[in-house]
């Protein structure tokens, strides 16, 4: 039987080979600029992103509960 970490590595390798893997990036959000976000590239360059971001609940950002938090 394979060790758990090896099973995970084999599974991830198969996903990548099949083109079925996703990569997520860290986004910075500023109060009052919803739905805009800032992405800082690993080389330090910053890029503004606006629009359909992957987070399904982004449309809740201007709700009373969200703003009061």
Q: What does the average pLDDT come to?
A: 79
Order of the strands making up the biggest sheet? 1-2-3
Q: Distance between termini? A: 49 Å
Name the structural class. alpha+beta
SSE order, one letter for each helix or strand: HEEEH
- How would you sum up the major sheet? 3 strands, antiparallel
- Which band does the percent of strand residues land in? 5-15%
Compute the gyration radius: what is it? Answer: 18 Å
**Structural shape:** elongated
Estimated helix fraction:
25-40%
Number of helices: 2
- What is the number of beta strands? 3
Unreliable stretches (pLDDT < 50, length at least 5) are none
Structural features:
elongated; 2 helices; 69 residues; three-stranded antiparallel β-sheet; 3 strands; 14% strand; alpha+beta
What does this structure look like?
- The protein has a domain at 22-52.
- It is built from two helices and three strands, in the order αβββα.
- Strand 1 and strand 2 (37-40) form a beta hairpin.
- A three-stranded antiparallel beta sheet has the order 1-2-3, with no helix packed on it.
- It is α+β, with helices and mostly antiparallel strands and 69 residues long.
């Amino acid at each position: 039987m394979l060790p758990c970490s090896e099973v995970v590595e084999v599974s991830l390798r198969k996903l990548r080979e099949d083109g079925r893997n996703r990569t997520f990036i860290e986004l910075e959000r500023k109060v009052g600029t919803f739905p805009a976000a800032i992405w800082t590239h690993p080389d330090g360059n910053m890029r503004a992103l606006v629009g359909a971001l992957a987070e399904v609940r982004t449309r809740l950002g201007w709700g009373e509960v969200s703003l009061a938090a």
